[in-house]
Design goal:
5-stranded antiparallel beta sheet, Aminoglycoside 3'-phosphotransferase, Chain: A, domain 2, two-stranded antiparallel sheet, 16% strand, Phosphorylase Kinase, domain 1, 324 residues, alpha+beta
């Protein structure tokens, strides 16, 4: 059953004569709505994705983080995503493919966001493990994205991107029981924020937010709730950590960084010819372990038993702390 207000909005936005419910793609985090696939009759598109955002009457969280601050952060994240699609997303081209923005509407406390269906546009695959070429395709997407928005002011977006930013996560910081990491957290954040070269970061560039073509050679990205200003290494460190276990991180980190920076050099030459790619690479390579440690700090406060908290991350964090 389709919400009548949503059905009316979709018809008005697409010219469809009929809208058919094709399934729930996924529930939004903590019960803040649903993402639906809708089939259309009489419209240019045969199917669309509708993100129906509605704050729950009773809040919940899979890991117990239920606070007013958590609610406010989620509400802002959807406002940011709406601003992203309306005002910024059209600047992304084939190298940083994402769903095309179709329309948006606020109906009381409900927000409807209508997007291109990437499945229908040639990106039907979702992967849980990646080959090296597939990892490199995602890193190339990030490089193109970072180069496109190099030096931009994040109007309407997060002043500092990523969902784990220290200033927006005081509860998780309070819960952190690692005294050395806790003491270093502000310095780590300042070092990333003080980077000479800043861009927009996706802010939640995990494997689950990438879609692949049928042959898995092309990639597109989803979910722009935490896009904002930042050092590109935040996305790169987080992405690699979402794909690889401890042993694989040790073995493949260097080659994957080389691949990212090759793509970044190519994309900067295309989009930002006045920027020296070598200078960007020199600064950002130094900040890669700092960005890794920043997320590690969040994770240890948010979910101390998480699988990503491993010997590799601990070693990186201790090295970064010792150098501050």
């Amino acid at each position: 059953m389709i919400d009548p207000a949503l059905e009316s909005f979709v018809k008005a936005s697409t010219g469809a004569s009929r809208v058919k419910f094709a399934g729930v793609v996924q529930e939004l985090w903590s019960g803040y709505g649903k993402i639906l696939r809708l089939n259309l009759v009489g419209a240019e598109q045969t199917s669309v994705i509708a993100k129906h955002i509605a704050a729950p009457t009773q809040r919940s969280h899979p890991r117990g983080w239920v606070t007013d601050l958590s609610h406010e952060r989620k509400v802002k994240s959807y406002e940011v995503e709406l601003a992203w699609y309306r005002n910024w997303s059209s600047r992304c081209r084939e190298g940083s493919r994402l769903p095309r923005f179709l329309a948006a509407e606020q109906n009381g406390d409900d927000v409807f966001l209508l997007l291109e269906d990437l499945n229908a546009s040639g990106f039907p695959k979702r992967l849980t493990t990646l080959t090296i070429p597939q990892l490199e395709s995602c890193l190339a997407w990030l490089a193109e994205f970072h180069a496109t928005f190099f030096g931009e002011k994040p109007a309407g977006l997060w002043e500092t991107g990523t969902y784990w930013h220290l200033a927006t996560r005081p509860d998780e910081f309070k819960a952190l029981t690692d005294p050395e990491l806790k003491q270093a957290a502000v310095a780590i954040d300042r070092r990333l924020s003080a980077a000479t070269y800043q861009t927009f970061v996706h802010g939640d560039a995990k494997l689950a937010n990438f879609c692949f073509s049928a042959d898995c050679t092309e990639v597109a990205a989803l979910d722009f709730q935490y896009v904002g200003r930042g050092c590109g290494m935040k996305d790169v460190a987080y992405f690699i950590g979402s794909c690889l276990d401890e042993e694989a991180c040790e073995l493949k980190e260097g080659a994957l960084l080389d691949s990212y920076f090759q793509s970044l050099r190519d994309s900067l030459t295309k989009h930002q010819p006045k920027i020296n790619p070598a200078a960007v690479e020199a600064e950002w390579r130094e900040l890669f372990p700092v960005a890794w440690t920043d997320f590690h700090r969040f994770l240890k406060g948010w979910c101390p038993g998480h699988w990503k908290i491993n010997g590799y991350s601990e070693r990186i964090a201790r090295e970064v702390i010792s150098q501050l």
